[in-house]
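Pasting as-is:
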Amino acid sequence: MSHEAFQVRVYGLVGRELDLEYSDFTSGKLGPHLDVNPIVSTFSGIATPVSSLLEIIQPLAESTHAIFHASDDFQAILPIEQLENALLLFSQEDKPLKKGFPVRLLVPDGHSDCLNVKSVVSINFIRSEPHQKAEFGFANTVSPDDLARN
C-alpha cells in the first residue's frame, strides 16, 4: 500500500465539497457496502455506489461531467448520467486497496472503453459541452515551452 494518506477530494460544481478519508467509506457514511464480484466479475472487494456520493454532494444543475483524476495523471471524463451504476472500490480483504489505492472507479455499464480507473485521488464536477462523450487518457503535464527547450 502507498505511504500516502488515504484522501479523495470531491469538488467543483457541487453543493458540498468533500475531502474523503478511508473511515468515510468504511463507516457506510457514503452509502451501502457492495460486494463488487457479482457486479464486475474480474474484481473482488467492497465498493460504495457513486450514486450515493452524488446524493451527498448534490452536483449543481449546470454540472454535466465528472473528471476522475488518478495519482499518475491519468484522468477519465464521464457524463454524470453514466455514473448511475458506477462504483468506488475502496477495500479488499478488509484493508485499503493495495493496487488502485486509494479508490478505484468501476463503471460496469458505461459507454466508454475506460470502465476502470485506478488510484482515483480527486473527482471534479464540471460543465462541459452537452455532446461531449466519455474520454480518458493522461493529462498533458508538459507545456509546449518545456518541449521546445529539450
